Every structure is written in C-alpha cells, then in structure tokens.
C-alpha cells in the first residue's frame, strides 16, 4: 500500500513534512516536542539514519546554528540538533561495547553464613 503525503514540506529527510509543519506553526505549536521527534523518527523507517536526516532537516530549514525558536518549536529544534550530533560511530561506541567493557555493578551477591 502506497502512502501519500500532502504536506508541502514533505521530503525524504522530513517524511510527511512533520518538522516543516511545526516550524511553520512557530509559537502556535504547543508540543510536546518529544512526541513530534518520535513521530518524525518513526516515519524515517529503517532505511534512513536519524542523525543524517536530522542534519539534512536542520540545514534545509536554516537551523544548524544560532538560537532556537522559543517554546515547544525550539525544543524540537534542540532535539533535532542533539539527534544530529550522534554519528553511527558514536552510537556504536556507546551502545555496542562488549560486555567486558561495560561498567559492572548491581546487587552484591548475598552470602549465607
């Protein structure tokens, strides 16, 4: 089944134009920004790296640098900037460490005397 997006902001890096529509709303967007980011991420699917797509979206809308907008719209921009900062190598180093390199902790074994 084919999906058709009607937003004028729809692009491969912004499926359905979620980010573009929110930026267009500006202060009218009440959030939560986390929900918008999740919806955007889920629409990217398995074929797109969220960090790469976030960098493309930020560049497309001129938001790579500078102050973020106010309110929930600005919160979304901050989340996209954070997402853009995670390269695959950074994720691999953070999430895919061998068990021997992970910090040990947890409950201490109980000894019966």
Keyword list:
single chain; 113 residues; mainly alpha; 5 helices; globular
Structure description:
With 113 residues, this protein is an all-alpha fold. It has one domain (15-96). It has five helices and no strands. Helix 2 (33-44) crosses helix 4 and helix 3 packs across helix 4. The radius of gyration is 19 Å and the shape is globular. The chain starts with 17 loop residues before the first helix and ends in an 18-residue tail after the last helix. 19% of the residues are buried.
Task: List strands and helices in order, with pairings.
Elements: H1 18-25, H2 33-44, H3 50-60, H4 71-84, H5 88-95
Helix pairs in contact: 2-4, 3-4
The profile of the biggest β sheet is: none
Instruction: Using the alpha-carbon principal axes, give the shape.
Output: globular
Radius of gyration: 19 Å
Counting DSSP E segments of at least 2 residues, the number of strands comes to 0
* Helix content class: 40-55%
The H/E string reads HHHHH
Counting helices, strands and paired strands, the structural category is mainly alpha
Mean pLDDT: 83
Q: Give the number of helices.
A: 5
Distance between the termini: 65 Å
Uncertain residue segments: none
Total domains, how many? 1
Strand content: under 5%
Briefly summarize what is shown.
It contains five helices and no strands. It has one domain (15-96).
């Amino acid at each position: 089944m084919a999906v058709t997006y009607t937003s004028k902001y729809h692009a491969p890096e912004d499926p359905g134009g979620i980010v573009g529509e929110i930026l267009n709303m500006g202060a009218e967007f009440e959030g939560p920004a986390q929900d918008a980011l999740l919806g955007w991420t889920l629409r990217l699917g398995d074929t797109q790296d969220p960090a790469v797509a976030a960098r493309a979206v930020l560049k497309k809308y001129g938001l790579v640098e500078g102050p973020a907008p106010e309110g929930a719209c600005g919160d979304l921009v901050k989340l996209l900037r954070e997402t853009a900062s995670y390269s695959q190598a950074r994720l691999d180093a953070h999430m895919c460490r061998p068990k021997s390199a992970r910090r040990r902790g947890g409950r201490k074994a109980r000894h019966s005397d």
